[in-house]
# Entry
Amino acid sequence: MITLTGFGYEKQLKNPSKVFNNTWIDKSFINGPSIKTFEQQFANYCDTDESVAVGSCTSALQLSLLALEVGRGDEVITVPYTWVSSVEVIKQVGATPVFVDINKDDMCIDTTAVAKKITNKTKAIIGVDLFGNVCDIDSLKEFNLPVIQDAAQSTGAEYKNKKVGSLSNLTCFSFYPTKNLGCWGDAGAVTGDKKLLDTIRQLRNHGQRERFAADMVGWNSRMDTIQAEILLNKLPLLDKHNQRRIQIAKIYDSELYNIVGVPKQNENSKHVYHQYVICHPNVDQIQEWLHSRKIQSRRYYPTPLHKTMPYKDSNSYPVSEYYSANALAIPVHQYLTDKEVGTIIKAIKQAT
# Structure
């Protein structure tokens, strides 16, 4: 099976425990030294001053909203075509998600539609870097509202030659195992405004400013030290891995552009292809054929969130609905061989 996600790094390890050896030796499983080391190295990578390690990107988004004091009666603008975390965190803090559609070309938030949805209740905008393509951050900033960048799928990407993580009021990252930079459990990080990061650092650890001194209601959302040490080992490989994804995406572009819809890179973005998503009206047929050829693929996202019960919205978002009906992710991970890439291309051509 040619899988949607590759774990080549893990497969070549003869002794996996060496990857978290320091943590194992000193038994610093929570808040160990590797946490601060990773936070600083990741901040350096993002060309920013500091980062805060947390338990997941979902927690990163939730704590970011709390740090901005978003709560009951407030509204947050985002998109319905995304992973559920981007929207559920708004409800979790008591606020109301307000949807705008995505662009037809880059599948990111339609910034021209945002102004029509802003009210005196709007407290923030969550822009999603979908599939590794960076949304138009500068246009979102023009609304003079806090911008939370959901960069769960865009670690290592760039916008106007600047690294994601150095652009928005707050940027939230995911290190889920399938991500471009993934650990062996779940983990996330936040970069951005120092004052807000100080609040998030306190919120992630039960609201404590120091041990046994909680002066706000907090959460248990700390990154495990083992995950930090794993990420420290994998971070130096990220740019190389992303470059291979970009290389594979360019091959797909040249071979498939006249057969299926292929992703378009935002003109200001360096896309890192967490997913390579094709579009076709007979997407189910293509997926079935790929499966028969032992090639894994996946529908992202088959139901837009405004059509789900918890986030139901009576409005129509035609571009989101189009992609939900017609989009399919095919393998693009860095461990694919050229032969496997050729096999995938051949199968798609056969299916169409």
